[in-house]
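Re: the request from the purification team.
They wanted to know what the chain is likely to look like in 3D before they choose a buffer screen. I agreed to run a prediction and write the result into the notebook, where they can find it.
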Amino acid sequence: MFTLKQKQNNNFLLKLKLTHKTKGMKIFCIGRNYTEHVHELNNEMPQNPVVFCKPLTALLLRGQPFYYPDFSTDIHYEGELVIQICKNGKNVEPRFAHLYYDKITVGIDFTARDLQTELKNKGLPWEIAKGFNGSAPLGQFIPISRGTATQRRYCV
C-alpha cells in the first residue's frame, strides 16, 4: 500500500502506509532509493526499490526518547519524508495518487549498520537492524493542502 514516483537519478519518493491510529497500522519502507547513499554503502542500485517493514514497536511518537540499543556500536540515521496513506488502493494511476494520502511529517530511520552488514554478508534477512524498538521516530502529521484541481494534477 505505497506509491512510488521515480525522480531524477533513479531516486524514489518514500510513501509509508499509515492509518490514523496506530492500531492496525502498517509501516512500509523503501530502501536503496537514494542514489548517493546506495553508492556510499557500495550497494547495487536495484531495478525496483527494496521494500521492507518496520513493526509498530519501532515507532517513537510524541517526543519519546531514543535509546541507543545495546546490540550495536554503529547506529546510522537518515531523515525521511513520511506520508500518511488515507485509503487502500491497488494499481493506482499516478494522476490519482494524490487522492490516497492526506498528511505528511518527517521521520528518522535508525539502522544498526554493523548488524545489517553482518546479516547481509551471511545472506540473512536484515529487518532486525532496521526495525528494532524505537528505530522510527515520527513528527506530528500535518494535513496536506490540496490546492486547485490543476495544481493537484501536477503535484503528484
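For the purification team: Strands lie at 27-31, 50-54, 59-60, 75-85, 101-112, 136-137, 142-143.
Please add any questions underneath this entry.
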